[in-house]
Protein 1
Amino acid sequence: MSKPVKNSHTITSTIHAGELDVTFLECGSGPLALCLHGFPDSPHTWRYLLPVLAERGYRAVAPFMRGYAPTSVPASGVYQTAALARDAGALHEALGGDERAVIIGHDWGAPAVCGAALDAPQRWSKVVSMAVPPGPALGAAFVSNLAQIQRSWYMFFFQHGLSNHVVAANDMAFIDMLWAQWSPGYEATVDLAHVKDALRNTDHLQAALGYYRATLGDGKRDPELAALQQRMGSEVPAQPLLYLHGENDGCVGRDVALAAQAMVPEHVQFEFVADAGHFMQLEQPERVNQLIADFVTG
């Protein structure tokens, strides 16, 4: 492991987990609380939550996800969500997690945490999912919900090779545009700087786009992950699960979240965060931190 670098409430370290060298932010000690980010984002999205979890007695860890610098680009070239779930399991093992561990995920991190909880339920006592609803509702929306198909236009654009150049052009102005559309009115200057640092290298940007190509296109898939991938598209973890959704989310509509709420079992708790869009943990940190901390310690 590399020598930790102090950064206000957190330290930064690197550890080998599975096929990756994973760099992560860390705060506190105690049972593991693993926080997974999405696109286009970085673990700095958890900068308000990590100290709160540490105060509640957790070792709060937020990794740079598969392919996001400085975490390594996987030699396998696999970016399906089941691989993200297995990454979480590998981190649980590498970091010495036990059955008290909790797992929290936003955007791509949301299906990843649900997949990790399905894959190895003995590792995770509670699950928090944010901005991408658990269960089959989002997949169904891609077939029947024209408003959501319009919101998700970028996912289809990413299947085309032209997107490689468009996303990288003009200091990644494409990413600026997505944040402005998904969280209207939020000043994202700091967050945009962090995510651009993670994706500025071509190989890392291709990795981030690879998540979408493995989901909707011809991106590489590992046959050994097929069974878990299928479960992730239909099942909801049995552990206590809190789902959070911003009322003004411009990426995944509130209507999709409401449809998901009608489908999930009773043990799944839904909370809609007022005056927040897609990046609710940054827009309304006090409310989101309280909801998560109370849930995982309750």
Protein 2
Amino acid sequence: MPSEKRKDNSMAKKSKEARIQVILECTEHKTSGMPGTSRYISTKNKKNTPERLELKKFNPILKKMTVHKEIK
């Protein structure tokens, strides 16, 4: 007998509406003049943090922790 599954996605959609995907780019890498870029993709809640996101992430080209800011 096939099991009947209920597809009620109303709760899931409400919780996902505010989250958006953002791109974080290294600020020190731009000024260093070295080729390439250090970028990360993350998500943020648009309602809780309307301003641009700033996080310290590892830059593999500069081999150190740097400030990455949200672009676009």
Protein 3
Amino acid sequence: MSGEERTCPKCRGVMRRGEIQFPVERLHPQSISPYTSGTFFGGMPTFEEVSVGKPYWEERTGEKKGIIFKREEAKRLAITGFRCTRCGYIEFYAQER
């Protein structure tokens, strides 16, 4: 995908490049030590860790690789896309990283 100007195939609006991202949230209990009593540190809240996950396209290449155990090779491709600013149409493309 080059940075050229794209037009929407449905409404002829301007297309903008982007990628799919989704937040992955995990709650972790806040603890100092498993041996401390809950009275001294009892009021400490849990903290939330938020990271961003990016999906990918995986396809089998048909090649078998490995020294002892042969298994089919898989190739991962990044998923990027374009969104129309007028009608919201989205096109996705899988590209090598």
Protein 4
Amino acid sequence: MIGAGPTGLACAIDVQEAGYRVTVVDKGCLCNSLFHYPSHMTFFTTSELLEIGNIPFPSPHAKPNRNEALEYYRKVAMRYRLDVRQYETIAGAEGKDGDFRVRTADRFGREKTYRAQKLILATGYYDIPNLLHVPGEELPKVMHYYTDPHPYYDQDVLVVGGKNSAAIAALELWRHGARVTLVHREAEIHRHVKYWIKPDIENRIKNGEVAAHFSTRVTEVGLDSVTLETPSGMKTIANDFVFAMTGYRPDFSFIESLGVRMEGKDHTPVYDAKTLESNVPGIYLAGVIVAGARTNEIFIENGRFHGQQIADGISQKLGAPVATGAKE
């Protein structure tokens, strides 16, 4: 199993419960993408829809926050005694159905090889940001992930984007003392921004508390400024930090390197809709990567069920051994 996010953990549990030995490898920590969400983030959904492994997710709030989710998934991994190998980056994979070899490297470059009959990819999409492709984007002041507002007090901060992540970042930064400018290439805030966030950011803009430039794009990032192409012409404003909240995409090159075929402009992988086995025998896909570039179609809420499909598919091929159950 490659990927130790909520979907990867759910898949590991289902396959383990079907009686097979599962090793989970992740280049970061457990639920690495979730860990890099904003520290004060609240989920849009209820805790019940984030549950995996038939273990209740208790929360005193109608919608749980990031820290509650991290604690919940840690406890689930502990409850099932999942074999999770953290901080191991995939260096390559070879072989065929029934005899795969996966090479990894740890933080110090030490290599290790795993052998497996089947591979499950649940690599998500949060690790590769969509770049602005403008001069200066490589500067350390430009970031594609937002976690906490405190370091940006009394700073000129540009937030690029018009969806949930951009709106949340802009509001939190403003509320913690940053001077915030929001830039979005569209004419208005995206209509799918969370219903309690959208009026908040729109009112801050209306009141002049957050400056905003719509139908605008960044053309250059300088050491102390950014240059914008606005409907009224080019504009240069003072700037200390840039948060480019322009979305993320799956690692298509890694998936394709394994022989998985992608189709269409959305890079949708070829797979069996019933078992989630890809066109490469023995390689299964789970979570958001099933939808290719359409990353707004699959979330924890529906990706968590992919494990049962995969477990059933593996059992059909290998024969179902006696399930071991969760280890005590």
